[in-house]
Amino acid sequence: MATVLLSRQCVTNQYLRKKDDPHRYCREACAEHTKCGPVIVPEEHLQQCRVCNTNGRNCQTIGEADKEGIRDADFILYVSALTTERCGQENIIAYAAYCQLEADMDRPIAGYANLCPNMISTQPQEFIGMLSTVKHEIIHALGFSAGLFAFYHDDDGNPLTARYANGLPLFNESLGVYQWSDKVIRKAVRLWDVRDNNILPHNIFLLVTPKVVEEARKHFDCPNLEGMELENQGGIGTELNHWEKRLLENEAMTGSQTQNRVFSRITLALMEDTGWYKVNYSMAEKLEWGRGKGCDFVMKSCKYWINQQQRKKEPVAPYCDTLRSNPLQLTCRQDQRAVAVCNLQKFPQPLPQEYQYFDSLYGVLPKDLPHYGGSVEIADYCPFSQEFSWHLSGEFQRSSDCRILENQPDPFRNYGAEKYGPNSICLIQKSAFIMEQCRKKLSYPDWGSGCYQVSCSPHGLSVWIKDVAYLCSHSGQILTVTIQMNGWLHMGNLICPACLDFCDFCPPEQDPPPVANLTRVASIDLCSCSPSLVITLWLLMVNLFPLLAGFLLCAWS
């Protein structure tokens, strides 16, 4: 680590470099203030002002000498929470970028992250999501940015993109960034299946640096994959600056936060391929989306994948083909850590032909099919099962992430006897749960899955309902649940997951014992009187008999 001192900004935004001199010189004059994003950089972080005349001659230093700088640092991050013009754009939670590069290796040495105050949530349920957003923005400032692709270096420290006499790559005016070489980014065309048996050309950009290619091929199990696809939608700030959402849905460096962000080996590989960092791959988080799905998944449209799976009578996951309806048909997120719903919906206008995927949908007229697609545009309108939130009068109440204790439903609305917490997962419900009390029977219209606590033991995976453990002897086993909670009888059926999805050790699968998972509680009549009340009533009756007999005798006489 060294001392970081930043160059001053220029009044004209034009600067020069002298041969064999790492410093940056302003044409005419330095600006009064130097900013990193919306933040004014403190004077003590700045180098002395260096200027040349309008012809680039008579270069000199003026003003105060170099300040102290930041010692023992490799990178300075300026963090702010300012209401800026960009914060006024729809759904912008935070944004970040690099500010300055060091001279020898073009590595970012300063960057900023601005959190939009009106979008910062203090809800405990949203803390994990907010934290992942901050991490996401820091990764942009450190290297995952279209503005930095042209500055990447190979393992020997050589630039992957050619430099001109001024030490910089060619500037691409239309994109507003320095133009990268095909050692970093390449264009490709995919054959794209859409409705009515049409095949269209689908233009994409691939990041093709060595480690990224290696990790992408391993993740998808596709040995001839050329690179990892970059986002092709979302406009400035999203397009080319993130992984393609369709292929890496909940990877942290996709262009929107839909659920459960994870920083995978593919993102760490990109950071290594910048030529600026050493990576500890043991810190990578497991990404389930697309894992082992093969070349058809990663190189063809989601329509092709869905149709192939349907023909083989296999699940279409991670995509889905169930219309979003009211009541909701609930399912589980792919990793079974949250309740989810298929985001297939109808749009007011027909989607572009490139994103029309359905030849038929149950209950939909053929003329309306071009209007249907997944709700997330940057996932190429491919539908998938998505985590969601409950709101009341527009106010956030809770999310559907099973691991967050604060998402626990109100006891008198907990129809499925659910339990949220760090040891909970999403299970499919075979039938709608019923809450029964006296002659009352209630069921929730939105059903299909719920959150339940599980544990692992030498016997396998157990599902806990209240204080009762239901052992899963094999994947797909039906658990019959009948249990009393808060004065109500809850009845329903759950489907066991695969033990190895959640436990490190699992015994061989087998049929459950004949007595297993039957009703675990004595038959309960929630309308019956308590024993003490019955005794009290009998004592009252015994004492009333003599009075009643005396009254009748008097009346008779």
Automatic annotation (TrEMBL):
UniProt-listed GO biological process terms: cell adhesion; cell division; proteolysis
Cofactor: Zn(2+)
Database matches in SUPFAM superfamilies: Metalloproteases ('zincins'), catalytic domain
Origin superkingdom: Eukaryota
Entry EC no(s): 3.4.24.-
Pfam family of the protein (one): Peptidase_M8
Catalytic residues (UniProt): 137
Residues holding Zn(2+): 136, 140, 242
Any one GO cellular component localisation term in the record: cytoplasm
Keywords, sorted A to Z: Cell cycle, Cell division, Cytoplasm, Hydrolase, Membrane, Metal-binding, Metalloprotease, Mitosis, Protease, Transmembrane, Transmembrane helix, Zinc
Keyword Cell cycle attributed: yes
Enzyme class: hydrolase
GO molecular function, one term: metalloendopeptidase activity
Transmembrane segments: 533-556
Chief site of localization: cytoplasm
Cellular compartments annotated: Cytoplasm
Cofactor note: Binds 1 zinc ion per subunit.
Assigned protein family: Belongs to the peptidase M8 family.
Entry protein name: Leishmanolysin-like peptidase
